[in-house]
Amino acid sequence: MTVNIDTRTIESPAVSEIYISATPEKNAPPAEMAEQIFSAISDTLRSKKARILQERVFATEAVMEILSRARSQAYNGHDLDDGVAASLLVGDEGAIGPIAGVQVYALSGGVETQAINLDGTPCGRILRSPGHTFVTLSSVSAPGPAQATEQARACLEKAECALRKFGTGFLSVARTWIWLKDILSWYDDFNHVRTKFFSERGLIGEGTRQSMPASTGIGLGLAGGCRCALDLTAVLEPADSTQYFQAGGKQQCALEYGSAFSRASRTITPAGQTVFVSGTAAIDAAGVTTNINDALGQINTTIENVRAVLRDMNVSDDDVVHVVAYCKTPQVERVFNTIKGNYPWPWVTTICDICRPELLFEIEATAVTKH
After folding, report:
1. I want to staple 42 with a disulfide (CB 3.0 to 4.6 A). Which of 74, 134, 194, 358 is the partner?
2. How many CB atoms lie within 10 A of CB 200?
3. Among 83, 86, 75, which residue's Cα sits nearest to residue 50?
């Protein structure tokens, strides 16, 4: 077996939340690796009688078709494939080869899920369990407009259209993941689009709740090539159960330097309380990049910034259930690999650009504690 499967399970009397991280242990032929990854995920989900809520695949463009085929073969016939595709996120090849890993969030127990269709394509799921209703959307994109900013606006509007099917909107969104191909060429422009959209929807501005979701905006593109896509999690029930933390740990509100997201959010999910820590880098309280040209310095500062947010949320390292490390280059990844074993986190590491040219490293994390 050349695959590492990390499974974190949070149990309540009625429902279990399951977080799976599947990563290669060593380089192997992509077809063999893909088959092992999805067979192991399928076995785990079937053993727990679990249903997928969200799924992300991190790899190079060249192997995405191989991974998609292996996923279909592993899931078909096991009531795991409801037609909603995983988010296929394209980065550069890393130290272990073209496949970086797969993350799955699933639930088992007294839950009911239903696929959400938008323009005839399944793009997410709504989950219902006693006292809980929430929506996940994956790979929402609008590749039609030529301009990247137009794609971004259309992408946000399309996600909003899906949420409106259930009588809600972005005010119920706890977490977004924004996938921005060629991020360094237009990140400032994207921020203008997002800030304007959130202002129009009442998420930010004078007299509002300041309900900016936790978020990651990162230089990964969807397989196939559009400039902007997003995943999100929205909590509909219990109503108003999401808290938004504009500042957190050692960092102040990102809106002060033009990025409309909260440092973290905390919400109630079926088996516990979930903390979403936004994409975090080596940026100080004034919004200035630190440790320039120092990969290890940025890595250590970033990890400490994330842990500071976790401490503010009263969660520990052991409560972390999903984490992604974004490294600018394979050289940065090699430095990161020398220290990542010091932390008990289920790492998935991928290679891509960060939102500033001088940034070499970024982390996002999800942590869950029981009710």
Report:
1. 74
2. 11
3. 75
CB 122 within 8 A of CB 115: yes
Question: Is there a contact between 155 and 229 (Cβ–Cβ < 8 Å)?
Answer: yes
**What is the structure's pLDDT at 252?**
87
Q: Are strands 50-59 and 3-11 parallel, antiparallel or unpaired?
A: unpaired
296-329 burial, b for 16+ CB within 10 Å, e for fewer?
ebbbbbbbebbbbbbebbebeeebbbbbbbbbbb
Per residue in 299-339, pLDDT (tens digit) is: 999 999 999 999 999 999 999 999 999 999 999 999 999 99
27: Cβ contacts below 8 Å, ≥ 6 apart: 96, 97
Whether 136 contacts 82, CB under 8 Å: no
Whether the model clears a pTM of 0.90, i.e. scores above it, the answer is yes
Is the pLDDT score of 356 beyond 70? yes
Number of domains in the chain: 1
Strand 214-218 vs strand 132-141: parallel, antiparallel, or unpaired? unpaired
| Cα 230 to Cα 213: distance, rounded to the nearest angstrom | 13
Average pLDDT over residues 33-47: 96
Cα 305 from Cα 277, distance rounded (Å): 10
The parent domain of residue 85 ranges over 3-370
CATH number of the domain at 201, please.
3.30.1330.40
